[in-house]
Design goal:
The chain is an alpha+beta fold and 128 residues long. The protein has one domain: 60s Ribosomal Protein L30, Chain: A (2-Layer Sandwich), CATH 3.30.1330.40. The protein is built from 2 helices and 6 strands, in the order βββαβαββ. A 6-stranded mixed beta sheet has the order 1-2-3-6-4-5, covered by helices on one side.
Length: 128
Protein backbone atom coordinates (compact mmCIF):
# COMPACT_ATOMS: atom_id res chain seq x y z
CA UNK A 1 0.00 0.00 0.00
CA UNK A 2 1.46 3.34 -1.04
CA UNK A 3 0.86 6.74 0.39
CA UNK A 4 -0.41 9.89 -1.28
CA UNK A 5 0.07 13.43 -0.04
CA UNK A 6 -2.94 15.73 -0.04
CA UNK A 7 -2.77 19.47 -0.66
CA UNK A 8 -5.34 22.23 -1.09
CA UNK A 9 -5.05 26.00 -1.38
CA UNK A 10 -8.28 26.20 0.66
CA UNK A 11 -6.28 25.44 3.82
CA UNK A 12 -3.06 27.05 5.05
CA UNK A 13 0.23 25.91 3.59
CA UNK A 14 2.31 23.76 5.89
CA UNK A 15 4.54 25.89 8.12
CA UNK A 16 7.02 23.08 8.66
CA UNK A 17 8.27 19.87 7.14
CA UNK A 18 4.94 18.06 6.85
CA UNK A 19 2.05 17.56 4.45
CA UNK A 20 -1.46 18.89 5.00
CA UNK A 21 -2.55 15.25 4.93
CA UNK A 22 -1.41 11.82 3.85
CA UNK A 23 -3.66 9.07 2.53
CA UNK A 24 -2.64 5.46 3.07
CA UNK A 25 -5.25 3.03 1.83
CA UNK A 26 -8.65 4.05 3.20
CA UNK A 27 -7.12 6.17 5.99
CA UNK A 28 -6.38 9.89 5.71
CA UNK A 29 -4.19 11.45 8.38
CA UNK A 30 -4.81 15.21 8.51
CA UNK A 31 -2.09 17.29 10.11
CA UNK A 32 -2.94 19.66 12.92
CA UNK A 33 -4.74 22.77 11.73
CA UNK A 34 -4.39 26.03 13.59
CA UNK A 35 -6.59 29.07 12.89
CA UNK A 36 -4.56 30.48 10.01
CA UNK A 37 -6.36 32.27 7.20
CA UNK A 38 -5.39 30.28 4.09
CA UNK A 39 -5.39 33.41 1.91
CA UNK A 40 -2.99 35.41 4.08
CA UNK A 41 -1.22 32.82 6.22
CA UNK A 42 -1.92 34.92 9.30
CA UNK A 43 -3.64 33.92 12.50
CA UNK A 44 -7.28 34.98 12.61
CA UNK A 45 -7.99 37.67 15.16
CA UNK A 46 -10.96 37.68 17.45
CA UNK A 47 -12.37 35.51 20.15
CA UNK A 48 -11.64 31.84 20.77
CA UNK A 49 -14.78 30.78 18.91
CA UNK A 50 -13.48 32.39 15.71
CA UNK A 51 -10.19 30.55 16.18
CA UNK A 52 -11.93 27.21 16.73
CA UNK A 53 -14.15 27.73 13.67
CA UNK A 54 -11.18 28.62 11.47
CA UNK A 55 -9.29 25.51 12.62
CA UNK A 56 -12.31 23.34 11.76
CA UNK A 57 -12.78 25.18 8.43
CA UNK A 58 -9.17 24.35 7.58
CA UNK A 59 -9.62 20.73 8.67
CA UNK A 60 -12.79 20.42 6.55
CA UNK A 61 -11.00 21.87 3.50
CA UNK A 62 -8.23 19.28 3.74
CA UNK A 63 -10.80 16.49 4.26
CA UNK A 64 -12.60 17.63 1.10
CA UNK A 65 -9.34 17.70 -0.87
CA UNK A 66 -8.76 14.11 0.23
CA UNK A 67 -12.13 13.07 -1.18
CA UNK A 68 -13.98 12.97 2.12
CA UNK A 69 -15.52 15.15 4.77
CA UNK A 70 -15.48 15.48 8.53
CA UNK A 71 -18.37 12.99 8.54
CA UNK A 72 -15.63 10.43 7.77
CA UNK A 73 -13.63 11.31 10.90
CA UNK A 74 -12.86 8.35 13.14
CA UNK A 75 -10.41 10.15 15.47
CA UNK A 76 -10.06 13.82 16.35
CA UNK A 77 -7.44 15.35 18.61
CA UNK A 78 -7.85 18.89 19.92
CA UNK A 79 -4.98 20.80 21.51
CA UNK A 80 -5.90 23.80 23.68
CA UNK A 81 -3.71 26.27 25.51
CA UNK A 82 -6.61 26.73 27.96
CA UNK A 83 -8.91 23.80 28.72
CA UNK A 84 -11.53 26.32 29.87
CA UNK A 85 -12.39 26.50 26.13
CA UNK A 86 -13.43 22.82 26.09
CA UNK A 87 -17.16 23.66 26.04
CA UNK A 88 -16.75 25.95 23.01
CA UNK A 89 -14.87 23.19 21.19
CA UNK A 90 -17.73 20.76 21.87
CA UNK A 91 -20.35 23.24 20.64
CA UNK A 92 -18.49 24.16 17.45
CA UNK A 93 -17.24 20.65 16.66
CA UNK A 94 -20.86 19.43 16.71
CA UNK A 95 -21.59 21.87 13.87
CA UNK A 96 -18.80 20.38 11.71
CA UNK A 97 -18.76 16.70 12.64
CA UNK A 98 -22.05 14.78 12.55
CA UNK A 99 -23.00 11.81 14.68
CA UNK A 100 -21.96 9.13 15.23
CA UNK A 101 -19.16 11.01 16.95
CA UNK A 102 -15.58 10.01 16.25
CA UNK A 103 -13.19 9.05 19.01
CA UNK A 104 -11.57 12.18 20.42
CA UNK A 105 -8.96 13.49 22.81
CA UNK A 106 -8.59 17.02 24.15
CA UNK A 107 -5.11 17.88 25.34
CA UNK A 108 -4.00 20.92 27.32
CA UNK A 109 -0.71 22.33 26.06
CA UNK A 110 1.41 25.31 27.07
CA UNK A 111 1.96 26.69 23.56
CA UNK A 112 0.99 26.17 19.94
CA UNK A 113 2.60 27.41 16.72
CA UNK A 114 2.20 31.10 15.84
CA UNK A 115 0.56 31.82 19.21
CA UNK A 116 -2.63 29.92 18.34
CA UNK A 117 -4.88 28.85 21.18
CA UNK A 118 -6.29 25.78 19.40
CA UNK A 119 -5.07 23.12 16.99
CA UNK A 120 -7.13 20.24 15.62
CA UNK A 121 -6.00 17.11 13.79
CA UNK A 122 -7.95 14.08 12.68
CA UNK A 123 -7.97 10.73 10.96
CA UNK A 124 -10.57 9.95 8.30
CA UNK A 125 -11.68 6.54 7.11
CA UNK A 126 -12.84 6.65 3.49
CA UNK A 127 -13.57 2.97 3.00
CA UNK A 128 -16.96 1.31 2.93
Amino acid sequence: MGKQTIHTDDAPKAIGVYSQAVRAGDAVYISGQIPLDPATGTLVSGDIEQEIRRAFDNLAAVAKAAGGSLADAVKVTVFLTDLAHFAQVNEIMAQYVPQPWPARAAVGVSQLPRGARVEVECILHLGA
